[in-house]
Specification:
The complex is a heterodimer of chains A (354) and B (160). Chain A is mainly alpha-helical. Chain A has 11 helices and no strands. By secondary structure, chain B is α+β, with helices and mostly antiparallel strands. Helix content of chain B is 38%, strand content 26%. In chain B, helix 2 crosses helix 3 and helix 4 packs across helix 5.
Chain lengths: 354, 160
């Protein structure tokens, strides 16, 4: 072997070892990095847009941060208490209906199975919480282990604070020097694969990025429309119900129905007249029509070209494997995998690598 | 003894690169801030002698400006290569990629060790959209150069 080649090989092995070591060493940082990259990815269009008006990246990032901080304060002071109230309300309505024993009412007929379930839970829950926990506490060894857990608790608080500080800082640098990072990565690629990797990145980013951002905007708009519609109908807990509709909307085919269930339950069980089920259904139908006729074609449109059958099967499989979260994320994840495979296969052929 | 920097990115100082941009026809009326912004999109690539830059049929991804060195543009023919053009410092190649969605129409190989500045097609359109003032200047220059090419070809045809 020639000497330069040998040196290169050694350097290559050393750098691989270094990367593995740093991954092991920085294990905890990696989750921060991932979160920071996702936030940066979502914010970067805003920062890039501001640059058109000659606003420097640093300034625009700081402006966005201030806006986000204000929003966060508003959310934590106004929306979250309301959300908690509404959630508590929602469950109060549920339990109050369960407690009234009126065998001729449609409500309690529908809920009977559920009420038994909750009663059994209630009868089981206190005994676990009070009796056993007390006994456990008195148990010496358990008590000691509890004390042993206090440092862990503090550690998790430290982790949380570190997370809250570190993530925005990483996001800041990733956003500010976005071009620098992209350039550094692609500059390190050898000439043979330079154009190929650039092409691959651009294709994947443009098709999946577009899809992902469009889906996010669609979700927000559907939630906003649902909230507005429910507020007009003066249905209690409109915010949480509308948010749920938005959140389940990305689930193709099933989403709108799943999203409507809590609203219908609230109307049927609560003080609102039952006829409002009909009005709420009209609101949801209008929102769905606006979504499928205007929003979806306009935002997501051609960016996702998966056959409806695949989409359906993916949603069902996601639901079986990971529940409702699986249903929400199944299609984007499968679409990402599909895009990566299709695009890399095509580019590998075009650049005569395979 | 050959001295080829393995990572030209580090060797070529940004200042020198900004100065060099001024000497390229399509970038020569950009202001300094505009060139600084453009610099963020430029990859500095080193090619060794006989290394292939791209081949005919590859997707049009990148537009290159020759910083130093010598390269040949050729068409692959069965019996041998047909040389079309020789590129030297300040020449550029792949500018058609900026306007058309087609594959490379010729191949390029380095005749000696060369340094090329690469700008991806997508980054270029992003730059134009982001900095329309600078973008217009570059596009005007590019238009003028393409017109010149057509004039030359016209003269060639009428001359024969």
């Amino acid at each position: 072997m020639e000497r330069p080649k040998l040196i290169r090989l050694i350097l290559f092995i050393l750098s691989v070892l270094l990367i593995i070591a740093s991954i092991l060493f920085y294990q905890h940082i990696i989750s921060y990095l991932i979160v920071a990259f996702i936030i940066a990815y979502l914010l970067s269009p805003i920062i890039n847009y501001a640059e058109i008006y000659n606003i420097s990246r640093t300034v625009s990032i700081l402006i966005v941060y201030v806006i986000l901080a204000v929003l966060l304060v508003i959310i934590s002071n106004v929306v979250i208490p309301q959300l908690v109230n509404q959630t508590v309300d929602f469950f109060n309505v549920l339990t109050s209906v369960i407690e009234q024993d009126d065998p001729f009412s449609i409500h309690s007929l529908q809920i009977k199975g559920l009420s038994e379930f909750i009663r059994s839970l209630e009868s089981k829950f206190p005994s676990i919480e009070v009796d056993n926990e007390l006994k456990n506490l008195l148990d010496r060894d358990k008590f000691n282990s509890l004390i042993g857990q206090i440092p862990l608790f503090f550690k998790s608080i430290v982790n949380l604070i570190a997370f809250l500080i570190v993530v925005p800082v990483i996001t800041f640098f990733v956003l500010k020097d976005e071009r620098y990072f992209i350039r550094t990565i692609f500059s390190s690629i050898s000439n043979r694969y330079f154009e190929f990797s650039l092409h691959l990145w651009e294709e994947i980013e443009s098709s999946f990025g577009k899809f992902f951002r469009a889906l996010l905007i669609e979700t927000l708009l559907v939630a906003a429309m649902s909230i507005a519609g429910l507020l007009i109908l003066k249905i209690p807990n409109a915010i949480i119900l509308g948010l749920f509709c938005g959140l389940t909307n990305p689930i193709k085919y099933f989403g709108p129905f799943i999203g409507a269930i809590p609203t219908m339950l609230i109307i049927l069980l609560g003080p609102t007249p039952d006829i409002y089920v009909f009005y709420a259904a009209i609101v949801f139908i209008i929102v769905q029509q606006v979504d499928s006729l205007i929003l979806f074609p306009w935002l997501v449109g051609k960016s996702m070209n998966m056959h409806p059958l695949w989409v359906l099967l993916t949603v069902i499989a996601g639901g079986y494997a990971f529940g409702i979260l699986g249903m929400i994320f199944a299609v984007p994840v499968v679409f990402l995998i599909k895009t990566v495979i299709v695009v890399s296969h095509k580019s590998l052929k075009q650049f005569e690598i395979i | 003894m050959k001295k080829i920097p393995d990572n030209a990115e580090k060797i070529i100082e940004d200042k020198e690169l900004l100065k060099f941009l001024l000497s390229i026809e399509i970038f020569n009326n950009l202001t300094k801030p505009e060139r600084k912004n453009l610099r963020k999109y430029i990859y500095v690539r080193n090619f060794k002698k006989a290394e292939i830059v791209f081949k005919k049929g590859y997707p049009d991804v990148v537009f290159y400006v020759v910083k130093s060195g010598k390269l040949k543009v050729y068409l692959d023919k069965g019996e041998g290569d047909m040389e079309v053009n020789i590129l030297q410092s300040k020449d550029f190649v792949g500018e058609m990629a900026l306007f058309m969605n087609e594959n490379r129409t010729a191949s390029v190989t380095a005749l000696e060790d060369s340094v090329l500045l690469a700008i991806s097609k997508r980054d270029f359109t992003e730059f134009i959209a982001k900095f329309p003032r600078a973008g217009t200047k570059i596009l005007y220059k590019l238009g003028a150069i393409l017109c010149e090419h057509i004039m030359k070809l016209n003269n060639k045809i009428s001359g024969e």
